[in-house]
Amino acid sequence: MSVQSAAADVDVDLRQLFASLGRNWLRIVFITLLVTGLAFAFAWLATPYYKATAKLEIGSRESEFTRPPGTNDDDKPILDEQGVATQVQIISSPDILKQVATKLNLDKLPEFDETLKMSALGRVLVLVGLKSDPFDIPPEERVLNAMHDKLNVYAVEKTRAIAIEFASQDPKLAAAIANGIADAYIASKGDAKLESNAAATDFLAPEIADLQNRVKDAEAKVAAFRAQSDLLMGGNNSVLPTQQLSELSSELSRVRAGRGAAEASAESVRRALQNGASLDSVPEVLSSDLIQRLRERQVELRANIADLSTTLLDNHPRIRALKSQLADLDGQIRNEAQKIIRGLSAQAQTAKAREDQLIADVNTLKAASARAGEQQVQLDALQRDANVQRQQLESYMASYNAAASRKDRKYLPVAASLIAKAQVPSQPYFPKIGPITGAAAAASLLLMAIGTLLAELFSGRAMRPAPGARFENIEQVAMPVARPEPVVAEVEDGPFAPYEAAMPGERLAERQSRMPESHATEVEPLEAEQSMPEPKPEPLPSRLGEIDVDKAAEKLIASGAARAIFVSPEGDEAAASAVLVAREVSDAGLRVLLLDLTASGAASRPMLDSSLFPGVTNLLASEAQFSDVIHPDLYSDAHVVPVGTADPVRAMRAADRLPIIMQSLTTAYDLVVVECGPADAQGIGRLVGDGTEVFLSMLEADDQVAQAAVKLIENGYPNLTLVTPVGHEPGDPLPGRRSAA
């Protein structure tokens, strides 16, 4: 809550407020009984209406045995809230209602056509123009309007069920119409299914005939292109050139591998012969049968030589003959190895020739395969078109067969069923005499009580004074008088109480008459002690010729001053003069602003009921703008700039800005009142400008005040005016403003 808020001027006296109900109980009871009696008579004489309800279930009713092949209930979308709401609108559509009205001859019943039995009151209303003439409306539309008024179709919450309620004066007719609407809705859904099936067969028959011709043409194009392009299909569902190319590539790889193996074998045998190495390690030599036999003969000869060497010398003819045979065997083995080399070389050359031939064939087949690939792309496109046409034809034929069978067999699976037929109601739903009478009694009693309380509030009889937010107490210093005044109990009568002097005698009686009872009781002991009324005191004498608040305000208004500087040498207690003068001038209709330059905020705090507002120190410290520091006085139309919440030391560093601030304020306001506290002539020098009046606020004519006045006069302010707030009584506040008395 803002610190600027204060208590209201008055408060509601709840005791007085509710006591008004007791004072006016007879009127409240009388009106309540009257309204209750009228409600009872209305409910007793009103025509009873009966309401019947039929319920429909919205959902698929298709059997799995009659469902078209390849479909199931999961393929069909489930109705959501919007779908059920759509069915509600269909049920209450004029077409459905027309069918029911025609079937039950509702146009011949006065309940649905008021022209058949129009009351005298209705004719009078038509004549004076308060009601439209029913004869201007077509009969069919009159019946439909009456049915709409009595019909209520709604979706049952959190279900896919729809309730059909119909109200009528005749309970049997109400049930018949509700059931008739449900039956008409189901029949309309069946007719819609029949029309849909008929439309489907009518559409699909020519489409199927056209598709059959297009399928034949597409397949003929595929066969003709295949024959023209000679695209023979081989294994793995590929064209013949592609298959041949694959086989030749495999053969070429095999031939290349054989040629490489033959060349490698021949080279290994050749190196063995050239290096004189043993041929036993060469696989091709070992695989030769002749060489194997020669090797066996060679082993045998060596064995014989070894046997004979034990008995014969090396030059023996027998040993020499064996050695000669052994040398011939080595030559034969080498000759045979040469033959093997020549055979392997011939084999490699043959493989090379075969490889060259295969390479030529592969290149030829590559070109043929490329051409076949291009032709295959065209063939695939024709084949896809033919397949699409055939699939569409098959789909159309399946749909046509399903629709035709349903049409021929009159099978119409409607997605709605009647789950509860409307029963003839035995009790009317309107009027309910007990509830209507009770509601009328409660409502009339409540309205009468509220009206009585509001009347008591608006009349002001239930209001009592409330303690508002008060100023900080300012210690009152009385003016010196010729004789002592009796002690009067201090009474805070409002925000201005600290600024009012306690008056003796009849002034005390006047103040007591204005105070609330709680305050008056506090003053009664004081009055009891005063047996004799004292005479009214004479105006207090003064040695310096001071004026009161009213005279100071009149002087400022008459002189047209733009600035009023108030100096209070006695401290914060005397700051009331600036506040009261500012309010008096503001009440005269001028725009007035009070600038509080006191250290304690004694001038602005009583006007705002708080010292927590930003003010002139915030403005000097550049923490706020003019719009932030100007606040309205709670008790007048004046505005006030408080001391503020910024650091005073920091603010005083920018004291040179005060003339600029004063110039801006005097431009916006008719009068700027400045409360400077106990300042001297040098202190107010920055505030003085054109059209400035300087006042010295005083509470008691003592030496301190006299010395301050003399110093101001000596320092350039000869037109100094002394003003005192003692004895001032504010006038009556304007409506809507807090009381100051």
TrEMBL record:
Q: Where is the composition biased (Basic and acidic residues)?
A: 508-522
Enumerate the subcellular locations listed in this protein's record, separating them with semicolons.
Answer: Cell membrane
Which parts of the chain are coiled coil? 291-399
Membrane topology reported for the UniProt record: Multi-pass membrane protein
Write the record's keywords in alphabetical order, separated by commas.
Cell membrane, Coiled coil, Membrane, Transmembrane, Transmembrane helix
Q: In what residue span(s) does the Polysaccharide chain length determinant N-terminal domain sit?
A: 11-104
Query: What residue spans carry the region label Disordered?
Result: 508-541
The transmembrane segments are 25-46
Protein's recorded name: Exopolysaccharide transport family protein
